[in-house]
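Record type: ASSEMBLY
Status: queued
Input:
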Amino acid sequence: MPKNIQVQLANRPTGPVEESNFRIVELDVPKPAHGEILVKNLWLSLDPYMRGRMSAAKSYAKGVEIGEVMTGGTVGQVVESNHPKFKVGDHVVGSLGWQLYAVSHGEGLTVIDSNVVPLSAYLGVCGMPGATAWIGLLEYCAPKAGETVLVSAASGAVGGVVGQLAKLQGCRAVGIAGGPKKCAYAIKELGFDACVDYKAGNLIDDLKAACPNGVDNLFENVGGEVMDAAFRVLNPFSRVALCGLISDYSATEPYGTKMIRSLLVNRVRLQGFIVFDRQDLYFRAISQLVKLVSQRKIKYHETVAEGIHSAPKAFMGLLKGDNLGKQLVKLS
Amino acid sequence: MPKNIQVQLANRPTGPVEESNFRIVELDVPKPAHGEILVKNLWLSLDPYMRGRMSAAKSYAKGVEIGEVMTGGTVGQVVESNHPKFKVGDHVVGSLGWQLYAVSHGEGLTVIDSNVVPLSAYLGVCGMPGATAWIGLLEYCAPKAGETVLVSAASGAVGGVVGQLAKLQGCRAVGIAGGPKKCAYAIKELGFDACVDYKAGNLIDDLKAACPNGVDNLFENVGGEVMDAAFRVLNPFSRVALCGLISDYSATEPYGTKMIRSLLVNRVRLQGFIVFDRQDLYFRAISQLVKLVSQRKIKYHETVAEGIHSAPKAFMGLLKGDNLGKQLVKLS
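Status: finished
Output:
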């Protein structure tokens, strides 16, 4: 008789996340009631936004309560169905959390086709991170051919798609990433024109060299010193899509951004955004990304942790930048 | 025989502006050539942006060179004309600098009517500061009736117009200003609903009390700690018009803004802007403001320094916030 295994929030981190912030519990597999389905999760997505959900600080979404299962995107398979729209064997993508099984009314679940792109891609390049890249770049930055697009966390699940979409728009794509391995990956595998290693200790000068015509579009995932340096190379009338601030998420004291003046003198438009606000664009973004991936016009990489018990450690690694591309947990 | 008196940039300030940064020189009154006019300046405008022009740092406009006359808006009267579009006696508004006389080809000069609003108003409420308020608020914030508009430097030439336009839009207008006198002026004279004294030492809590429904539109003139506090009370999907950063202009080290996270989680749109980029809106803004002022629907206050020699000290006072409303120098 299979058991459900669940990763719950045990207590809230102050500063960096630790394994002791999580509790792994074994539960009976729940029974789907009328109108419900039982899903066996196959893949769990780990994403930086989850750090915010662990915190009690006000954010755009309600945090996870102590003792609740951690929020997380999943791909799974329907194993029991009392719902007319789902049949046993269907693959579904949604947000069923850090656990092996879940019951659902079906809301927020989408049936996906594993013949077009692999199932796991629906959590990355053809999922929430891909749609984030698509909406932030094409809707909020709206780059024109010939412009320069700069993206931080360039080797991550979002940043890698941003750079490739920028190339498809006819732009110069420049990344910022941590370490020579990630930078080489962005350039050689993903086709970025340049990638600056922020750990090399020469960030501002390296950015200037990598962006000889300045930056017209900044897709910001990191914040902190990296963003402050990027603000220095912004061109007049440039656009900033503020997508994430991963360097701040685990900081006990937020970094003080000094280059606000650049936003004024360069008449910059900065837009903070959350992908889920744009349901009007989400499925269009996903369907275009599925097509581009199936045509091999967009590439991706996955870092896979094995088994639900590895999720906390893999998440801690993600927040430190240990992953390359999309961080997943293979559940089954 | 009258002489021209000119205030030139003697050297660049590091930190606060000092009188020794200026040189006052006496020159012959220039002669207008064919196609030129000679203007006798009557009023000089002092504005925070001039601090930027004194600096060698990259900004949106070329700085003043050492030994050049300081840049500045002026209202004057044509005393000689070799130009078909201007006749002797015409009043003109433009940017003829910190001096008593100037020759001009007429470019950038507009003939104004002293019968509708007083001449000096064309440098403030019906001039560049007024247009800045109009464009920043109505074009970039675009507030809806019932929303809250927060504006820093609320008793200044720009801020005072922002608050009154906000009221005309059906919004709650909340100001931030330095000291009880300025706050009382904003509320009692200009009709703000509330005004928070940032010098009172309780800025964040006072802002929360003054904005019980949060802030939907922030018109930012100040930057630094004041802006950081304002970021804390922003509502989801709020707009920030970034107009100025007066607290940073004289700082040797820029303030580090900590609440960037608020721009992300609240999905804020922030737009840095300079009024001169919007020539498409400038004259519409001015003509509406002239009408509103002539109908007494918008009020204003002027702080007037007497004589060209008083300009440096009056400018230093402006940067410290000594003025109430528009800071002018009466030249004649």
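Annotation: The domain at 3-123+300-330 of chain A is CATH 3.90.180.10 (Quinone Oxidoreductase; Chain A, domain 1).
Annotation: Chain A has a mean pLDDT of 96.
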